[in-house]
Amino acid sequence: FDLVAAAGGTLNWTDESGVEVTSTVVDRGAGTAVTKKQVLPLKSAALANYIVQPDDDIRFNRVYTVVNGGQVDLEGEIRSPGSYQITHGERLSELLVQAGGLTDVAYPYGTVYLRKSIAAQESVGYQRVADQLQTQLLVGLGQVSSSGGTTLSPDAIAGMQALIGQLRNQAPIGRVSFIADPSILAAHPERDPMLEPGDVVYIPQRPSTVSVLGEVTQPGSYPFSADKSWGDYLDQAGGFGRYADTSHTFIVYPDGTAQSVDSSWFRFDSAKIPPGSVIFVPKDILQINWTLLAITGGEILKDLAVSAASLAVLHQAK
Question: Which end of the chain is more exposed for a tag (fewer CB within 10 A), N or C?
Answer without folding.
Answer: C
